[in-house]
Automatic annotation (TrEMBL):
This protein's name: Aminotransferase
Entry keyword annotation includes Transferase: yes
Complex and partners: Homodimer.
Entry similarity comment: Belongs to the class-I pyridoxal-phosphate-dependent aminotransferase family.
Gene3D superfamilies, per database record: Aspartate Aminotransferase, domain 1, Type I PLP-dependent aspartate aminotransferase-like (Major domain)
Transferase as UniProt keyword: yes
CDD domains: AAT_like
Pfam families listed in its UniProt record: Aminotran_1_2 (PF00155)
Signal peptide span: none
Domain Aminotransferase class I/classII large: 29-376
Organism of provenance: Halorubellus litoreus
């Protein structure tokens, strides 16, 4: 067989997916707290909109950037909720937030150039940098401050090779919501280095202790900031694969040209569903938000009762990032699954800053969370 390229040989399988596969193959009752998957079904009015679209024959190709109607719905929500002024020519509807991030990286990171992100960080950024033939640098944030964004560390790490910086807020895996002033410093420094900022804000609708503010909004919406959003998390639409990339019209024009050769366009039916989710009745999503906030409080309070465990208070998203005082988080995660029936994601899957930690998703019912936390405490005592 001819050799494969380095870009597909280099990425390693995430330990998060390792745990997912182990859980799928496991017989018996498991409390699954490893994946960021809302336990809610997509609300009925969203499903009905998709069914109407399919039955009415809306099953064909759409413009590469997505339908004007879907882009207009996204534009309206970004303006009404976050004071962002993106027109339809500054938006591309994508196959989930994942494609939006990949398109942003392909557009901004060239061969040998650097993609930089504060850590702990979502592992897909590193893989996407490799697919762009670039490099990836993790800037480790200190656990002592609860992984607050330290702009000095990020700015000091920038160089002439830095092509883009990813700011993930609310953060996966830590649940932290970054301070606007700290983000502003990073945005300003990126401009000085002629670099882009990719604002990964797929959890922006899930902020609990701070107002939900977009990086581009408080930075004055400069042309070197690209905004990524998604319907997956806050709208319980992970399987619909519907996200977006927003930014300068010239950048988006080139992005749309590239995606002609990737996914071509998003699903027409999923776009109809997204329109209904974004502009239709919001009560189901408000109920989900309230449930996530209650679960956040339950998890934070219960973790504080477990001896030897520390975790910053999650301010957004639906993750707690806990330090159980071990060195090998993958070994611990496997022990918890096999011996105690609770599944968490190893912190080692989120870069060097996550070593020895575990990520717990509280996108599950209160009853299952209580059971899972009891199993976690029992498992820690036997490791």
């Amino acid at each position: 067989m001819p050799p494969l390229t380095a870009r597909v040989r280099a990425p390693e399988r995430s330990s998060i997916r390792v745990m997912y596969d182990l859980a799928e193959a496991h017989d018996g009752d498991l409390v699954r707290l490893e994946v960021g998957e809302p336990d809610f079904d997509t609300p009925e009015h969203v499903v009905d909109a998709a069914m109407r679209a399919a039955r009415d024959g809306d099953t064909h190709y759409t413009p590469n950037a997505g339908t004007v109607a879907c882009r207009d719905a996204i534009s309206t929500v970004l303006a009404d909720r976050y004071d962002l002024d993106y027109g339809v020519d500054e938006l591309c509807v994508t196959v989930g937030g994942m494609e939006a991030l990949l398109l942003a990286v392909l557009a901004t990171v060239g061969p040998g150039e650097e993609l930089l992100a504060p850590g702990p960080t979502w592992p897909n950024y590193e893989t996407q940098a490799a697919l762009a033939d670039g490099t990836f640098t993790e800037v480790e944030l200190p656990a002592e401050t609860g992984y607050d964004l330290d702009p000095d560390l990020v700015v000091d790490a920038m160089s002439d090779d830095t092509a883009a910086v990813v700011l993930t807020t609310p953060n996966n895996p830590t649940g932290r919501v970054y301070d606007p002033a700290d983000c502003q410093r990073v945005v300003d420094a990126a401009r000085d280095h002629d670099a882009f900022v990719v604002a990964d804000e797929v959890y922006l609708s899930l902020c609990y202790d701070r107002d939900a503010r977009a990086v581009a909004e408080y930075a004055g919406q400069p042309d070197h900031v690209l905004t990524v959003g998604s319907c997956s998390k806050a709208y319980a639409m992970t399987g619909w694969r519907l996200g977006w990339l927003a930014g300068d019209a010239d950048v988006l024009e080139r992005v749309v040209t590239v995606r002609e050769s990737t996914t071509a366009c998003p699903s027409s039916v999923a776009q109809a569903a997204a329109e209904a989710a974004l502009t239709g009745p919001q009560e189901p999503f408000e109920e989900m938000y309230a449930a996530f906030e209650e679960r956040r409080d339950l998890v934070h309070d219960r973790l504080a009762e477990i001896p030897g465990v520390t975790a910053p208070r999650p301010e957004g998203a639906f993750y707690a990032f806990l330090d159980p005082g071990v060195d090998d988080s993958l070994a611990l995660a496997k022990h918890l699954l096999r011996e105690h029936g609770v599944v968490l994601a190893p912190g080692s899957g989120f870069g060097d800053a996550g070593r020895g930690h575990l990520r717990l998703s509280f996108a599950n019912s209160r009853a299952r969370l209580r059971e899972g936390l009891d199993r976690l405490e029992a498992g820690l005592s036997t490791f």
